[in-house]
Design brief:
Strand order of the largest sheet: 2-1-3-4-5
Number of strands: 9
CATH superfamily of the largest domain: Glucose-6-phosphate isomerase like protein, domain 1
Shape: globular
Number of helices: 13
Order of helices and strands: HHHEHEEHEHEHHHEHEEHEHH
CATH topology of the largest domain: Rossmann fold
Strand content: 5-15%
Helix content: 40-55%
Structural class: alpha/beta
Largest sheet: 5 strands, parallel
Radius of gyration: 20 Å
Oligomer: single chain
């Protein structure tokens, strides 16, 4: 199959590819939207907690990876009904829910209220926006009409800006703007109008028919998890994410048996600025994974700054998983299993 615009459109009924290609504009627009919310710096020696689930939490995980050692205060993701026990008046809480009706995030917001924590919200609306406005809490207005996972640029920028507002990190505005420019270049290099031998299309073709395991270290660990989730939701495939160096202390032992269990592939996401020992581990681990995985794909991040390198791999993963959906004949908008689970939970409430 040729992965051109016509073949993509035949499967992609709601234009999910267009949302991926719009990532540069999303990053720039998100900066304006955070500013328009009226959120102001707060003295939060306890750091930042981002309460969110799924795609709305992905941006925060990526932000932690991009900031890395530049963090000067705690920054954690609360992906459940509860906030960390130490959350209180000295901790800024960002409640991130695309729909504004995510039950776990609403629960976490109420806990933030009861504990006297300063708050801000990133959402399209729903009960979360209504409660925040009632409380006089700044609301970052995310545009509607996306799948939550497609709003990654907005959730990432909201989290990075919240970290700055909490005094947990320096401002990333310059890096975000540079990342938007780089991603625009990479859209032309890897997008639907690129040749069939382009990096994103080649990776998708090579991984077709396999269960991908994506690994990363430091900055790329969060991106590996993003790839895993995008394979799950866009291509409706099982996929798994691993973190180095931890995977070298357990997971590598299992690769030799993988061939007798199924068709696995291994993708190593690598940052040229990673710790030298993690760079060495990436190559050695890829070699070990090759005993049970085929293909083994190694990808190096592009860009000068951490945010640029992070976003280069985010874009690549989003494109690869959309192409994978097309190769499988799967509409990337379909999340029937997730919708069914939410309905069952609502019925049991």
């Amino acid at each position: 199959m040729t992965l051109d615009r016509d073949s993509i459109a035949a499967v992609d009924s709601t234009g999910q590819m267009d949302e991926v290609l719009g990532l540069p504009e999303h990053l720039e627009d998100a900066l304006w939207r955070v500013e328009s919310s009226g959120a102001r710096p707060v003295d939060a020696p306890g750091g930042l907690v981002v309460a969110g689930m799924g795609g709305s939490a992905s941006g925060a995980r990526l932000a932690v990876g991009a900031l890395g050692p530049r963090l000067t205060r705690p920054f954690v993701v609360a992906d459940g009904y509860s906030l960390p026990g130490w959350t209180g008046p000295s901790t800024l809480v960002l409640a991130s829910s695309y729909s504004g009706n995510t039950e776990e995030t609403l629960s976490a917001y109420e806990q933030a209220v009861s504990r006297g924590a300063p708050r801000m919200v990133a959402t399209t609306g729903g009960a979360l926006a209504a409660r925040a406005r009632e409380d006089g809490v700044p609301v970052v207005p995310i545009p509607g009409g996306f799948q939550p996972r497609a709003a990654i640029g907005y959730s990432l920028v909201a989290a990075l800006e919240a970290a700055w507002l909490a005094g947990a990190a320096p401002s990333m505005r310059a890096e975000i703007e540079a990342a938007a420019a780089l991603v625009e270049e990479l859209v032309a290099e890897w997008g639907p109008d690129a040749g069939e031998d382009s990096l994103a299309k080649s990776i998708a073709v090579s991984l077709h028919g396999t269960v991908p395991v994506i690994a990363g270290a430091e900055l790329t660990a969060a991106v590996a998890y993003r790839w895993k989730c995008q394979f799950n939701e866009n291509a409706e495939l099982p996929a798994f994410a691993s973190v180095l160096p931890e995977a070298d202390h357990n997971e590598v032992v299992g690769w030799e048996a993988a061939r007798e269990l199924g068709r696995f592939s291994y993708v190593s996401l690598e940052d040229p600025a990673a710790h030298s020992r993690n760079a060495l581990r990436a190559g050695l681990t890829a070699d070990l994974a090759g005993s049970g995985a085929s293909p083994v794909v190694r990808v190096s991040a592009r860009g000068e700054s951490p945010v640029e390198r992070l976003m280069s791999l985010v874009l690549l993963g989003d494109l690869v998983t959309i192409y994978s959906a097309v190769l499988r004949g799967t509409d990337p908008v379909n999340i029937i299993t997730l919708d069914g689970l939410k309905s069952a939970l609502s019925a049991a409430a």
